[in-house]
Amino acid sequence: MSPTDCLFCRIVAGEIPATVVRETGTTLAFRDIDPKAPVHVLVIPKEHYADVATLAEGDPRLAAEVLATAAAVAEEEGLLGDGFRLLFNTGAYGGQEVFHVHAHLLGGAPLGPMLAGSPG
Ligand code: 5GP
Ligand code: ZN
After folding, report:
1. How far apart are CA 25 and CA 119, in angstroms?
2. What number does the ligand 1 atom closest to the CA of 94 have?
3. pLDDT at 92
């Protein structure tokens, strides 16, 4: 996929609106359009990488910047006391739907078990 066809690259470019909660030179954090928790923010690198494995391999420093932005948003959203969940859905089994790497930052209420069902 070329970046111009990528939904999150288009958000970075300002072509699609998003509720941005934090921006750095290399990262962007914005609210998920269909929140699964009281706080549900997506944290992405501005540069296009398909998934967290590709990002970690290609630019580990940028991967660390995504984590740092997620931590800063968690602090700003008041999640550090009660805790939060940070996850990267990856590939088919991971249920990834948008192939521009994004961390889901979830919090604001007890989040329940990590997985909806058990294997098998
Ligand atoms: P994935 O399933 O790839 O891990 O997560 C993709 C996420 O992107 C979903 O939680 C979905 O609600 C969110 N999403 C999809 N389209 C848009 C959009 O246009 N704007 C925003 N802010 N979030 C979106
Ligand atoms: Zn992209």
Report:
1. 40
2. 4
3. 97
Per-residue model confidence (pLDDT) at position 117: 74
pLDDT greater than 60 at residue 108: yes
Residue 44's nearest CA partner among 36, 108, 59, 109 is: 59
Mapping DSSP to helix (H, G, I), strand (E, B) and coil, where does residue 106 land? Answer: strand
Counting ligands in written order, the one closest to the CA of 91 is: 1
Domains and CATH numbers, the chain: 7-107 (3.30.428.10)
* Ligand 1 centroid, distance to 73 Cα (angstroms): 18
pLDDT tens for each residue of 87-107: 999 999 999 999 999 999 999
The whole-number pLDDT of residue 19 equals 98
**Cβ pair 70, 86 in contact under 8 A:** yes
Supply the pTM of this predicted model. 0.96
* Identity of the amino acid at 49: Y
